[in-house]
Predict the structure of Integrase.
Amino acid sequence: MGVIWFDITTHDIITHMNNYIDIIKQELLLRNYSRKTISAYCLAIKDFLLFFNQEISTLGANNMKQYLLHLHDKGYSPQTISLKANAINFLYTQIIKKDGYIKIRHPKRSKKLPLVLSRNEITLLLQQTPNPKHKLMIEIAYSSGLRVSEVVNLKVADLDLDELTVLVRQAKGNKDRLTVLSEKLVPRLRNFLFDRDGQYYVFESNRGGKLSIESLQKTFQRCLQKSQIAKPATFHSLRHSFATHLLENGVDIRYVQKLLGHQNIRTTQLYTQVTNPALKNIKSPL
């Protein structure tokens, strides 16, 4: 079945929310958006339409502001509100193509510094992870700067143990990237992956197949608690630590940007605020 197109002269015949969701999903797929973004946009539009429960053609700019204020009052983060604003903008500018529509301005994002584990804390965390498989998952995330989704999607063929590289396929933004692999992990990875076909996942569940993201996050939290590290770290903190420690080692920020897969170097520059040696060398006057 082909894609059904609606323009501004016919959109008012659409009365069911699912029609909008289906059209948005088709359009995003054609534009090669990631499945994660497609899911987030569809959920955002569904929530927006359910909030008012009326024909979308009757909604104006004040309604949209009312919805975003509702999200703010509910305690949603600026990042989440920005995503929902993007979804609403996409609906009105790309699907409905409403005349005179002025894009909703994004709320100002909070500038929180990334939570980074020190080298000693990384060592302590690994010492409190006796399970060889769990330890390797944490080590490869830290040593290669991987997101949790990238660890669970990693396949045997993506690891080049001779060249010490990891190929991250279809990462954020549907882009492949190459990152580094620690030489220290190679002997254990060879044993762990012995006689495994290249299309197998590196870290499979006990039942076979891909490990779930939730399972890996829970594993990390258990190990964090055992290590008695007070910081409210998450699995993503391993990626933050990778970037920060590379910069502390003197690696050029442009290389760190490539390894992380950041499109904009300003995203990578955030880590320079965490690892500012000049600032850390200043002594308090007290």
Observations:
- The chain is about 50% helix and 5% strand.
- Confidence is low (pLDDT under 50) at residues 1-14.
- The domain at 119-277 is CATH 1.10.443.10 (hpI Integrase; Chain A).
- The two ends are 73 Å apart (CA to CA).
